[in-house]
Structure formats: structure tokens, C-alpha cells
């Protein structure tokens, strides 16, 4: 069983490194914005990447006196040379629609 699991992990690692892709479900562990490191909030943001779209959820803090609320959105993305750019198509905050991050 361990040998089979190891073989699957090695095959997966080889496939991923040969074809860099973001497709899948990701929990954001670290991030930066405008070259500044941003500490992720808890619970951490989840992003789901398909071949052309990104869907995400996160909790937004209005203030220390008000509870966090769930924000959701989706958009398109490009990933080239290690740089990810996301264009917001729909979001629970309408002010973010059309913005690029």
C-alpha cells in the first residue's frame, strides 16, 4: 500500500512540474499585494481554479465591533511566468467587479 501511494505521489509531482497549472482547490497560506506581504485571515481563503475561471470565498472584517461576513466572487485569470492576475467578473461587493488583482 505504501509503495502504491508513493508511486502515485511521485507521478503526481512529476505531472504537475511538467505542466504548471493552478487547476484545483487551494487554501491560501500566504499572499502579497503591491509587493507587500499580507497575513491571511482565519478561516483562510479558499480558491477554486478551473482551466479559465477562479471562484473564491473569504471572510471580510468590517470592524472589530461587527462580525465577519462571507464574501464570494468569481472571475477570469491568467498565470504566466509565476505571476497570477485575476479579473473580477462577479462579487458580493459590487465595487470590486471589473478590478484586476
Write a structural description.
The protein has 101 residues and is α+β, with helices and mostly antiparallel strands. It has one domain (22-96). The chain has one helix and seven strands. The protein has one helix spanning 2-18, and strands spanning 24-27, 31-33, 36-38, 46-49, 53-60, 69-80, 83-91. The strands form two sheets. A five-stranded antiparallel β-sheet has the order 1-4-5-6-7, with no helix packed on it.
Q: Please trace the helix and strand order, writing H or E for each element.
A: HEEEEEEE
What is the overall shape? globular
Number of helices: 1
Helix content: 10-25%
Strand elements, count: 7
* Helix/strand class: alpha+beta
**Biggest sheet: strands side by side, in what order?**
1-4-5-6-7
Question: Can you give keywords for this protein?
Answer:
two-stranded antiparallel ribbon, 5-stranded antiparallel β-sheet, alpha+beta, disordered N terminus, 101 residues
